[in-house]
Write a structure and sequence with these properties.
Elements (H helix, E strand, L loop, with lengths): L2 E10 L5 H18 L7 E8 L7 H8 L7 E5 L10 E10 L9 E2 L17 E5 L6 H12 L2 E4 L1 H13 L8 H6 L6 E6 L2 E6 L2 E2 L7 H10 L3 H14 L5 E5 L2 H5 L5 E6 L2 H14 L6 H17 L12 E4 L5 H15 L3
Bound molecules: 2'-deoxycytidine-5'-monophosphate.
């Protein structure tokens, strides 16, 4: 699946002169291109930041001088960080590629390695949150990520996005699995974080709202039983979690996606409670609904999640069970926050 990925680079200048900054920037960009075998037409953009002790305008100019004419460039002055490396030029080269993150080569030259001691993900862990639909996984995970500075990854959104692709192409997913599988390479899923919110893009279109519609939920659960698709999405999820400092929610995170997560939570609540929460949400929105019908839907979804052949929902042996039937939202968040803090490496 071709997607935009970022290659990082950093170097230092010996002096704050135009020629020195040009030469350090050029050396770094040339090495990124050579080490990653990049075709310049696959570069989507290049962003530089430089420490406040050198002139910020020069690195982009150096790239233009190298003859890279059409790529959008941005130069920025980095904030002043205590203990950060001096006279440092950092770059993020975004490329369109089929490679996975682990196949990319980042380039650190002239002693530029530990650049921002203040934001290393040291200490942060990977947290897997699994559980049935309606247990509050995503709202709890989102709140925890915001509070603790973690990245929240909603894996259900990825199944939903593939579901929307099927709908758009008129594929009857449950009965035309092979057709959907044969189109996998045409499904480009991108995930962006804007103001802390995960936005989903399907082949370039923002489908963040669309994937929450009812037909997308149905399509997602048909997608979720297809092993070939799960394999692809699980690989993407593992890639995304490589940095650490993630809270990922889904059905198979603790068992399949992140079997080595430092903390695994199985978040659940009774059928009655989950149905009541959903019922209240509808009532608050002024939508008409029937409690018994919602409850029947919860039971059906639980059955589907736990009885499918491919990665059924199951509590991992080493997951901690958190039953929120008698907890409110804040109590649920506080309970897991404590577990994360106790598990983080200090
Ligand atoms: O959590 P959700 O309702 O957004 O999930 C959408 C569908 O995807 C649902 O049918 C369960 C499935 N799913 C899955 O099988 N594995 C995951 N890791 C996440 C979601």
């Amino acid at each position: 699946m071709s997607m935009i990925r970022a290659i990082r680079g950093a170097t230092t200048a010996a002096m704050n002169t135009k020629e020195e900054i040009f030469s350090a920037s050029q050396e770094m960009i040339e090495k990124i291109i050579a080490d990653n075998d990049i075709d310049v037409s696959d570069i989507s953009d290049i962003i530089f930041t430089v420490t406040p002790d050198i002139t910020a305008a020069f690195p982009a100019a150096a790239v233009r001088r190298m003859g890279i004419a059409d790529v959008p460039l941005l130069d920025m002055a980095a904030p002043n960080i205590n203990d950060a490396l001096k006279m440092c030029i950092r770059v993020m080269v975004h490329i369109n590629t089929d490679k996975s993150n682990s196949e990319l080569h980042h380039v650190y030259l002239r002693g530029a390695k530990v650049l921002r001691p203040d934001i290393g993900s040291k200490g942060k862990i990977s947290v897997a949150i699994d559980g049935p639909a309606g247990a509050g996984k995503s709202s709890v995970a989102k709140k925890l990520a915001e509070r603790l500075g973690y990245i929240y990854i909603d894996t259900g959104a990825m199944y939903r996005t593939v579901g929307v692709y099927g709908i758009e192409k008129g594929i009857d997913i449950a009965n035309e699995k092979d057709r959907l599988i044969s189109e996998l390479d045409n499904i480009k899923i991108e995930i962006n974080y804007e103001n802390g919110i995960q936005r989903m893009y399907l082949n370039g279109s923002d489908v963040t709202g669309r994937i929450r519609e009812n037909d997308a939920s149905m399509a997602a659960s048909a997608v979720a039983v297809i092993p070939e698709i799960r394999e692809r999405l699980v690989a993407m999820q593992q890639e995304m979690a490589k940095t650490g400092g993630v809270i990922m929610d889904g059905r198979d995170i603790g068992t399949k996606v992140l079997p080595n997560a430092e903390l695994k939570i199985y978040l659940t609540a009774s059928v009655e409670n989950r149905a009541m929460r959903r019922y209240k949400e509808y009532v608050e929105k002024g939508e008409e609904c029937d409690f018994e019908a919602i409850k029947a839907d919860v039971i059906k979804r639980d059955y589907n999640d736990t009885h499918r052949a491919a990665s059924p929902l199951v509590q991992a042996d080493d997951a901690i069970l958190v039953d929120t039937s008698d907890m409110n939202f804040e109590e649920s968040v506080a309970a897991i926050e404590k577990m994360i803090k106790n598990t983080e490496v200090h």
